[in-house]
């Protein structure tokens, strides 16, 4: 779905930008041009950014848990907590 019609930016573009390190609206503005024309996309772009960040954080937590399990050899009694 298009998020920013003026710059033809979709949810996928924002998801990709987050994977590349975008964390704030400023990052989307600089890298994708979001909100640089009519600004009607600001609210939707912010929601899309927050959703992408949540998914990215969840993926990072999952990776961290698996890395800890690999390092500890799945030691009995060791239950890493995802935050
Ligand atoms: S829709 Fe994003 S700047 Fe116009």
Q: What report would you give on this structure?
A:
- Helix 1 crosses helix 3.
- A hairpin with a 4-residue loop joins strand 1 and strand 2.
- The relative contact order is 0.15.
- The chain has one domain: BFD-like [2Fe-2S]-binding domain (Arc Repressor Mutant, subunit A, Orthogonal Bundle).
- The model has no long low-confidence stretch (mean pLDDT 90).
- Helices cover 58% and strands 6% of the residues.
- It contains three helices and two strands; from the N terminus they run E-E-H-H-H.
- Strands 1-2 form a two-stranded antiparallel sheet.
- It has 83 residues and is mainly alpha-helical.
- The radius of gyration is 17 Å and the shape is elongated.
- The structure holds FE2/S2 (inorganic) cluster (FES).
- FE2/S2 (inorganic) cluster (FES) binds next to loops.
- This is Bacterioferritin-associated ferredoxin.
- GO terms for molecular function: 2 iron, 2 sulfur cluster binding; metal ion binding.
- It comes from Azoarcus taiwanensis.
Quick rundown:
Keywords: 2Fe-2S, Electron transport, Iron, Iron-sulfur, Metal-binding, Transport. With 83 residues, the chain is mainly alpha-helical.
Shape field:
elongated
Low-pLDDT runs of 5+ residues are none
Number of strands: 2
**Main sheet strand line-up:** 1-2
GO molecular function: 2 iron, 2 sulfur cluster binding; metal ion binding
Pfam families: Fer2_BFD
Family: Belongs to the Bfd family.
Keywords: 2Fe-2S, Electron transport, Iron, Iron-sulfur, Metal-binding, Transport
